[in-house]
Amino acid sequence: MRLIGLAVVLSLTLSPLAGEAQQPTKAARIGYLVTGSLEAPETRGSFDDFRQGLRERGYVEGQNIVIEYRAAEGKNERLPDLAAELTGLKVQTIVTQGTPAAAAAKQATSTIPIVMAIATDPVGAGLIASLGRPGGNVTGLANLDAELSGKRLEILKAALPALARVAVLRNPANPAHRAALREAEAAAHALGVRVQLVDVRDPGEFRTAFLAMKRERAGGLVLFADSMFGTHRARILDLAAENRLPAIFWQRAYVAAGAFMSYGTSYPELLRSAAVYVDKILKGAKPADLPVEQPTKFELVINLKTAKAIGLTIPQSLLVRADEVIQ
After folding, report:
1. 76 phi/psi in degrees, rounded to 5
2. Where are the domains of the chain?
3. Confidence class for position 25, pLDDT limits 50, 70, 90
4. Is 148-264+299-326 a domain of CATH 2.40.320.10?
5. pTM: predicted TM-score of the whole model, two decimal places
6. CB under 8 Å to 223, separation ≥6 — which residues?
7. Tens digits of residue pLDDT in 137-157
8. 8-143+267-295 has which CATH code?
9. What DSSP state is assigned to residue 293?
């Protein structure tokens, strides 16, 4: 879920829909900060989902709301400068996608409201005090990606009953991965599976990482949610196929692109819900008074074509649990 390049600024204008609410005379201005790439289909899809949520509440981009987009293109070190740009534009709220983006926004401002559209372990990452009483200027949605890391390992084990050693790919610079690793290790212990922790800090390390997995005879791979992994999705999928390594991701988009499996939160639901927070804040609500919500819908997606390509037969008991099976 991308080309590496300079930060991109994008403003899109949509035609107003029939029957929209009466437009105010002055357009609201909000910022949207993402860790990934604007060129990625899933990023553009997330923007569409968010704008759909806005339209459902009477906001039409280019009419009564202006969105300033900033993207780190998979390089989180750019996030502080991008967050500072948005604060300099005097936006009324900043929507963030990804835990590092939310952290950069929080560091850039203590007064502008911040809405987390997608964030993992916001309490552990120091973004909020608690889910029920977030405090400060940050609220929004927690996607439970860290908590679901153990569940992904359980599903991978169900697909591969003989799995004895699993590789876990993480980015040590991502603060959410600490909690994700705890969950994965706890699940591995319960399942009697050994964990091989593989760190990747730079895209140039992917091939070395997969060579290490092969050398240690990993039978499967669990990836933690990270914008760098998303930006270089094609590279990771190619290496997984080359090494015939079944991998489970956190989002359906990867399976649609050829990954073995995914299990995670329904991102469209999160992004449309983020628009609800923006609406409340624009109408005067304070982030500290808006509890952080957690998702209620999760999706298991299996790619049978990929399974067959690496010589796997998925147990029927797992196939019937899937929300979607790609043939």
Report:
1. -65, -20
2. 8-143+267-295, 148-264+299-326
3. low
4. no
5. 0.77
6. 168, 169, 229, 236, 247, 248, 249, 250
7. 999 999 888 889 999 999 999
8. 3.40.50.2300
9. B
